[in-house]
UniProtKB/TrEMBL annotation:
Residues 6-348 form the FAD-binding domain. The keyword Oxidoreductase applies. Keywords: Monooxygenase, Oxidoreductase. The keyword ATP-binding does not apply. It holds the Pfam family FAD_binding_3. InterPro entries: FAD-bd, FAD-dep_Monooxygenase_BioMet, FAD/NAD-bd_sf. One of its GO terms (molecular function) is FAD binding. This is FAD-binding domain-containing protein. It comes from marine sediment metagenome.
């Protein structure tokens, strides 16, 4: 091809972050997305400081982020009787140079889409167009097979193809045709939002319960004049012998499907049944992932985001890692050009360590402290220091942050992934 052009399969958070990165670098790209209309789907997610730095470097402002969420200032684990197990500040409250944001996933997604179409034009994202496979051409380019919602099919040739098409990725299926099916370990999640007054400090991420039954709650909007905010919650139950395998995502659910698991979860600071009972919307999600693969690259084709490393959401870093993937690909393209060598460098840098993170999240990620407490005392205690010492708790969390790439000292001291003003073309 006379001029480089990158094809991106999927207009999720990762795909849009990559397209924004390529536009910033001056590299033409086209995003193909299977849905006819992008809508603000989903509920709450957390964006870690390392990914917020990348969004800021893309020109996303604090005001942009405040419009879709709010800074998270505290991370807390609470035992099944309501007592605190561990608490730490987060974001700038902890000393990071960048905040951590709790955001509405759909609003964040639509903000990135709007930013891309404003700077690159509406033609940058082709809706109703699904990449179903690829052909590596003799000249080293790649042709994406695209099926359209109206029934048509076409080949689109580019210099590189990036599969950002999620856990059900067609690009990954071709790259790894013998991969095992999607893995469900027996944990079912019910996600929703409720209008309520925030707990503790007003911007706290709270994990409550045990490894068998757990509730995660945090606000994803600033409080209104009466003190009410949108509270994101995730109710989780582990089944030892699940009757059926689940691989669906964001299926509508009813409160009666799961509320009985949280009977009696009432404390002086939180009434769980009451919070869940005023939900605006409820979805059922199995906690699913995919086994790691040994490479995310096939010549001029690479995987990113959930297509590369779908992982349990126990570390609140799935979307953050997709953003980091996008920026790493951009940095490798700056170093190696729009070439297969750039994708190979990206693979070398991220595939092995992030594969380890997938496995770590299967072990409950940072919520593993709840498992530790449960194993040692059945979840009941008077003084947490008698069960898990403070140094032991701090060391556990430090190991996870280092593995996930947002250890504070390392992040604060690191150079930008892509220097301001960098251009390839």
């Amino acid at each position: 091809m006379p001029n480089p052009h990158i094809i991106i399969a999927g207009a999720g958070i990762g795909g849009l972050a990559l397209a924004l990165t390529l536009h910033q670098l001056g590299v033409p790209c086209t995003v193909f997305e299977s849905v006819r209309t992008l809508k603000p789907l989903g509920v709450g997610i957390n964006i870690q400081p390392n990914a917020i730095r990348e969004l800021y470097d893309l020109g996303i402002t604090e005001a942009d982020m405040d419009a879709v969420g709010l800074p998270a200032r505290e991370w807390v684990l609470v035992g099944q009787e309501g007592q605190e197990i561990y608490a730490e500040p987060r974001g700038t409250e902890a000393g990071y140079l960048w905040p951590q944001y709790a955001a509405h996933r759909g609003k964040l997604h639509m903000m990135l889409y709007r930013k891309l179409t404003e700077c690159a034009g509406p033609e940058a994202v082709q809706l109703g167009a699904k990449v179903t496979g690829y052909i590596i051409d003799r000249d080293g380019t790649v042709s994406a097979k695209v099926s359209y919602a109206d029934g048509g099919e076409e080949l689109h040739t580019g210099t590189l193809l990036i599969g950002a098409d999620g856990i059900h990725s067609a690009v990954r299926a071709q790259m790894h045709p013998t991969q095992p099916p999607i893995r469900w370990g027996g944990v079912m999640m019910w996600r929703g939002t409720s209008r309520a007054k925030p707990f503790r400090g007003g911007s706290s991420f709270i994990g409550l319960g045990t490894h068998r039954q757990r509730l995660v709650i945090y606000p994803i909007s600033q409080p209104d004049a009466e003190g009410y905010a949108d509270i994101n919650w995730i109710a989780e139950v582990t089944y030892d012998d699940p009757k059926k395998r689940k691989t669906g995502w964001y299926e509508p659910a009813k409160l009666s499907d799961f509320i009985h698991h949280f009977d009696g979860w009432t404390y002086d600071w939180l009434d769980v049944p009451a919070l869940l009972g005023v939900a605006d919307v409820i979805y059922e999600n199995p906690m699913i992932d995919r086994d790691p693969v040994d490479t995310w690259v096939d010549g001029p084709v690479a995987l990113m985001g959930d297509a590369a490393h779908a992982m349990y959401p126990t570390g609140s870093n799935g979307a953050s890692q997709a953003i980091m993937d996008a920026r790493t690909i951009g940095a490798c393209i700056l170093a190696h050009g729009v070439t297969s060598s750039a994708l190979a460098a990206y693979d070398t840098q991220l595939c092995a360590p992030i594969s380890q993170l997938i496995l770590r999240n299967r072990e409950a990620g940072p919520f593993g402290l709840l498992n530790m407490v449960n194993d040692r005392c059945g979840g009941k205690f008077n003084n947490i220091d008698d069960v898990v010492t403070e140094p032991e708790r701090a060391a556990f969390m430090a190991r996870y942050k280092a593995a996930a790439g947002f250890a504070m000292e390392q992040l604060n001291a690191s150079s930008p992934t892509i220097s301001l003003g960098s251009k390839l073309l």
